[in-house]
C-alpha cells in the first residue's frame, strides 16, 4: 500500500492557510453580489441606462474575480527567465501576462463606469474633473505597477512568503 506524501512546499502552503476555504469565501462573496445586483436591477427595471450599468458592473466584477482566481492558481514564477523557452514555463508566463492584462482592463473598465456615474451627479465641473482625474490616476498607476515597474531583485520568491517572513533576509526586510 502506497502512502501519498506531500512536498515540503505543499505542507507549508497548507500550514499557512492555503486551500483551507478560499472557495467558500468566493462563493459567499458572489452570492452576496448576486443578491445586491438582483435588488438593484429590480429597482432599475424602468430605467434602461441604470439597468445596463448594474448588469455591466456585476458581469465585470464576476469576470475580474474569475481572472484573479485563475491568476492565484498559477504556479509561482520561475527564478530565471530563459530566452527561447518554449516549454511549460513559457506557457505559464504567457498565461500570467494575459491574466494580468485582463485584470487591469476589467478593473479599469469598472473604475471608469463608476466614475461616469459619479461625475454625472457632481454639481461643479471642477468636481467632475477631480473624479475623472482620480480615476485616470488609478488606471495609469495600475498599468505602471503591473507592466512597467520591476521591483528590486529578490534572491528567492520563497522568501516573500508571509509564513517565512521571520526567516527572511535583512535586505527583504528593508524592502518591505
TrEMBL record:
Keywords of the record, alphabetical order, are:
Membrane, Transmembrane, Transmembrane helix
**InterPro entries named in the record:** DUF6490
Q: What is this protein called?
A: Uncharacterized protein
Signal peptide interval: none
Write out the transmembrane intervals. Answer: 23-42, 49-71, 101-119, 131-149
> Which Pfam families does this UniProt record tie to the protein?
DUF6490
Amino acid at each position: 500500500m502506497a502512502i501519498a506524501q506531500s512536498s515540503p512546499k505543499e505542507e507549508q502552503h497548507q500550514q499557512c492557510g492555503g486551500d483551507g476555504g478560499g472557495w467558500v469565501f468566493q462563493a459567499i462573496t458572489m452570492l452576496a453580489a448576486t443578491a445586491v445586483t438582483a435588488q438593484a436591477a429590480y429597482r432599475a427595471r424602468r430605467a434602461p441606462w441604470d439597468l445596463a450599468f448594474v448588469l455591466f458592473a456585476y458581469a465585470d466584477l464576476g469576470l475580474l474575480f474569475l481572472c484573479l482566481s485563475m491568476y492565484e492558481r498559477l504556479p509561482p514564477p520561475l527564478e530565471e527567465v530563459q530566452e527561447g523557452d518554449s516549454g511549460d514555463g513559457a506557457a505559464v508566463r504567457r498565461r500570467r501576462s494575459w491574466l494580468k492584462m485582463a485584470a487591469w482592463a476589467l478593473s479599469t473598465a469598472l473604475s471608469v463606469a463608476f466614475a461616469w456615474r459619479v461625475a454625472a451627479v457632481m454639481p461643479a465641473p471642477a468636481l467632475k474633473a477631480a473624479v475623472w482625474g482620480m480615476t485616470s490616476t488609478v488606471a495609469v498607476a495600475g498599468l505602471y505597477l503591473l507592466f512597467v515597474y520591476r521591483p528590486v531583485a529578490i534572491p528567492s520568491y520563497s522568501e516573500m512568503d508571509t509564513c517565512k517572513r521571520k526567516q527572511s533576509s535583512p535586505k527583504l526586510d528593508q524592502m518591505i
